[in-house]
Amino acid sequence: RTTALLPVDLNSLMFQLEMTLARAHAVTGKAEKAAEFRDRAGRRKAALQRHFWNDESGLFTDYLWREERTNDTITAAALTPLYFGIATPAQARRVAAVVRARLLQPGGLVTSTVTSGEQWDAPNGWAPLQWMAIQGLNAYGETDLAATIAQRWMAKVITAYDKTGKLMEKYNVVDATLVTGGGEYPTQ
Predict the structure, then answer these.
(1) Number of H helices, E strands in the chain
(2) What confidence score (pLDDT) does residue 2 get?
(3) Cβ neighbours of residue 183 under 8 Å, at least 6 residues apart?
(4) Residues near 13 by Cβ (< 8 Å), separated by ≥ 6?
(5) Which residue in 23, 61, 168, 185 is deepest, having the highest Cβ count within 10 Å?
(6) Quick check: helix, strand or coil at residue 171?
(7) What backbone phi and psi angles, to 5 degrees, belong to 171?
């Protein structure tokens, strides 16, 4: 359904890019362009709050634009608004509660609660999502949860490295006895 949704992580990244471009234009003395990109970032942040926050589930989700509603799928992408400073403190607390209850696994954060056999779903965990979650949670004072994710993830990576002599692109974070999870191609 990739063409039917607006991704929360991509829009969070675009907010950050717009803020970066605003700062770059300001440094080079282009005040009008800096203001334009600050305005774009402000509008995107407001849109993320309005369209991507799912108050019922307590987290940021992708937006199904044809249906004009948030997606019900719980994914680690919900943490990108924390990483980029888009979430409110109250939203961050609610996201942290959902992460603890639904995404936290023995090896770190599972990418989603869906088990589809595809690489971006359970039982897989990916390093960039772990890092953004840890940094985002720390920024909002959720330091215990951030430390737990970091410890579990690093234990998984170290154990897999000791078994294989390799670092993997993704890991099975649900089953401690397995190094990697499923996907459309062999683990790299």
Answers:
(1) 6, 9
(2) 79
(3) 117, 118, 119, 124, 170
(4) 80, 84
(5) 61
(6) strand
(7) -135, 150
Residue 3: both structure tokens together: 């063409």
Using CA of residue 162, residue 166, residue 169, residue 172, what is the dihedral sign?
negative
Distance, in Å, from the CA atom of 183 to the CA atom of 116, rounded to the nearest integer, reads 9
3-state secondary structure of 75: strand
Instruction: State the CB neighbour count (10 A cutoff) for residue 122.
Output: 21
Quick one: which of 129, 149, 128, 122 has its CA closest to 138? 149
Tokens 């965990």 belong to 125
pLDDT tens for the chain, 188 residues long, are 778 999 999 999 999 999 999 999 999 999 999 999 999 999 999 999 999 999 999 999 999 999 999 999 999 999 999 999 999 999 999 999 999 999 999 999 999 999 888 888 999 999 999 999 999 999 999 999 999 999 999 999 999 999 989 999 999 999 988 877 666 667 66
∠ Cα 114 55 149 (to 5°):
50
Q: What is the pTM of this model?
A: 0.93
